[in-house]
Amino acid sequence: MDARKELSDRMRIDREEAAARRNLLVQDVIERTGINETMIAELVANFYGRVREDELLAPIFAAVQDWDQHLAKLRDFWSSVVLTTGRYHGQPMRAHLPLTLIGEHFDRWLDLFEKTAREICPPAAAAHFIDKARRIADSFEMASATQAGRISSPRHVFRY
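The chain above was modelled as a monomer; its predicted structure follows.
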């Protein structure tokens, strides 16, 4: 029984230490970039407003029936991505794979995202958001290509 308690205690301590490290990392991001929940909400609202009006992307997002709910989910997603809040619990890859997206979609999504981030956010925050968005686009594009039987390499991370 002592071994189980010891293991349980060690696991609890490990979780607490990991949470403390994560909090330090989040605080560092906030101090370096100024990103906060208000900025995330503004970026998400403005960006997806543009997406909904974009000739190429709007038809893809036309399937969204409740935009208030979808925007709340996207705010949670971006909060989890940039501030590691853990609020988002979905499976974004699973949601996007059936959409048969191609390179042109990812390029346009990034063009709009980067433009919006640069307009709304201070430079350090925009750079942080853009880095994450490029990685997400590469990941989604490679998964979409694989599902379609194609090979795709990351091409957005090094975009200038």
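The two ends are 58 Å apart (CA to CA).
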